[in-house]
Amino acid sequence: MKLKFRHRGRQFFFFTVCVNKRRPILSRLVDEKTRPVLTESGKKVLEMLRALHGLNSALTASDFVIMPDHVHFLLIVNYDADPIFNPLVFVHAFREETERMITTGGPPPRVLRNTPPAPGGGSGGRPPSFAPFWEPDFWMDLSLDSRQLRAIRTYIRNNPARAIWKRDHPDRFARHSGLRHRVLDPALPWSGYGDLTLLASPFLFPVRLTRRVPVAEQEAAIADAVEKAERGMIPVSGFLSPAEKEVEQRLRLSSHARWIKSVPHGLPPRFDPTVEDSRHLAAGRELILSSFPADVPTFPVSRMNCELMNARIIALCEAAKNGGSAPEPPIDS
Question: Is the Cβ–Cβ distance between 68 and 28 less than 8 Å?
Answer without folding.
Answer: yes
